Amino acid sequence: MGVDAYLYAVGPVADDELVAANKYMLGRDNGFGENCEGEYLMRSEFPPEYDRIEFHNTQRLYDLEYTKGNWPIIYGAIRLMQVAFPQCVIHYGSDGMDDCPVVTDERMEEIWAFYLGPDGKPPRY
User: Fold this and answer.
1) What is the rounded distance in angstroms from the CA atom of residue 30 to the CA atom of residue 74?
2) Exposed site from 17, 103, 105, 111, fewest CB < 10 Å?
3) Per-residue pLDDT of the chain (125 residues; tens, 9 = 90+)
4) CB-based contacts of 105: which residues, under 8 Å, 6+ apart?
5) Angle, to 10 degrees, between the axis of helix 15-26 and the axis of helix 71-84?
6) What pLDDT, on a 0 to 100 scale, did the predictor assign at position 45?
7) d(Cα 99, Cα 86) in Å, to the nearest integer?
8) 107 touches 101 (CB < 8 A)
9) Which residues, other chains included, contact 76 with Cβ-Cβ below 8 Å and sequence gap of 6+?
């Protein structure tokens, strides 16, 4: 079994904002939601004080240590979540983590530089 991408937003999100964000994501699906049934964003089962909205997707993780996911698709989902939830902090990492690192411009640039470099292709290629 592989390691999946885990992407979520932390912050206050009203129910109507969640519905609108799901519609926004659905209208821009570019491969991140294959096999999903139209609802990518769901409230977390973590305790309510986390205010966590999880992005359910079908991508493997892509980072500097694990390159099985499709980074351009994952990055697109990260950017869409940043637009859908401007009041939230976006996190990205492995589904094996309870708390993933915060998405920062520096971290995204680091992953892009690796992806575009000589060692950045996923093993399946």
Assistant:
1) 10
2) 105
3) 689 899 999 999 999 999 999 888 887 766 665 555 567 899 988 766 668 999 988 789 999 989 999 999 899 999 999 999 999 999 999 988 888 999 999 999 999 999 999 988 765 54
4) none
5) 140
6) 82
7) 20
8) yes
9) 28, 30, 32
* Crossing angle for the helix pair 105-116 and 71-84, to the nearest 10 degrees: 160
Q: Give the chain as a DSSP string.
A: --PBEEEEEES---HHHHHHHHHHHHTT-SSTTTT--S--EEE-SS-GGG-EEEE---PBPBSSS-B-S-HHHHHHHHHHHHHH-TTSEEEEEETT-SSPPBP-HHHHHHHHHHHHSTT-S-TT-
**Stated length of the chain:** 125
**Residue whose structure tokens are 């089962």:** 45
Nearest Cα to 81, choosing from 20, 38, 31, 35? 20
Type of residue found at 39: E
Cα–Cα distance measured from residue 125 to residue 67, given in angstroms and rounded to the nearest whole number: 11
